[in-house]
Amino acid sequence: MTERKAANLQLKALTKKYGEQTALYETTLNIPAGRFTSILGPSGCGKSTTLMLIAGLEKPTAGCVLVDGDDVTNTPVEERGIGIVFQNYALFPNLTVKENILYGLRARKASEATLSSRLYEMLELTYLTDLSERYPAELSGGQQQRVAIARALAPHPRLLLLDEPLSALDAWSRASIGEQLRAIQEASGVTTVMVTHDRQEALSLSDYVVVMNAGHVEQADEPNDIYDRPASEFVATFVGGMNIVRMPLIREGAATGLRYADVKLYRATEAALTRPYTFVGQVQAVQFMGDAVRVKVLLNDFQTTITADALRINTDRSVFSLHSLIAVELPESAWRTWGAQ
Ligand SMILES: Nc1ncnc2c1ncn2[C@@H]1O[C@H](COP(=O)(O)OP(=O)(O)OP(=O)(O)O)[C@@H](O)[C@H]1O
Ligand SMILES: [Mg+2]
Predict the structure, then answer these.
(1) How many CA atoms are closer than 13 Å to the CA of 42, on its beta-carbon side?
(2) What is the DSSP letter of 318?
(3) pTM: predicted TM-score of the whole model, two decimal places
């Protein structure tokens, strides 16, 4: 269905200052063509700023934006061939689904034949065929979301940019609309950049994840590398579920990461305690998480608290009773380090 080859996007030493404040520091990035990239980071780290610079809605203080090697830094937004979807969808309330989707093509004076074939494609792609005559007020949040995506994709953009497109939805629809968004992206093959502060969303939907913190890129990698080979302590902890351990017996006290799910808990028998890197601790908290039980254990000899997520299916819950003593294994194969350590 794609008429254009997917575009490659590059940022070169891109910098943005708002007055005295720097929102983005000399950022260089290569966003892969035809793939789904997420920009992930905490509030205020510069995610939306980066997206607006790519779109041309803000001017950089320094540096440039290249699409397929062409410098578009001074190209006006409407000439960049970009589809944009923001958090609040901003559909035209007085236009039907159909007219919302066709808006960009009509503005470009597309022929009637193009309008009707593209409309058909977009309705199919976004599962909206039965809703084409409805007005935005007659749609659910998720359906409005899909109209916004269809409207952005209809004119064959070279890039699709999405700023927190799922954040207005409840957790259940987020997951399912996220999957639909991913399927739509794959079917259209358009290079896509989505901003999110939700790590689960970023890791599960993307081919490539850019983790930002305070105006800097901390790491840009595939999701499994972000998870398994964090480039910094910030990435290690922001991506979630990571203990930072500093114990003389573990890498001589150097900061070492250990995912909650990688910590193993056993009944405190003598046999369990002879395993390598296994220590005795006292259960301080047990939290029910659905599929897993999250257990916080104080390691008696190190005054260090370790968090472990034990899958309920593998677990004899009597092992984790509050205040009981327990054996905690910190398996060497799961130790994670970062940076130049
Ligand atoms: N128009 C502006 N004028 C001045 N400062 C701004 C402006 N827009 C953003 N900033 C500042 O730049 C920094 C980055 O903002 P940005 O909107 O890019 O963050 P974000 O990562 O998208 O955050 P959020 O997750 O809260 O949307 C923030 O400190 C913000 O206060
Ligand atoms: Mg933002």
Answers:
(1) 9
(2) G
(3) 0.89
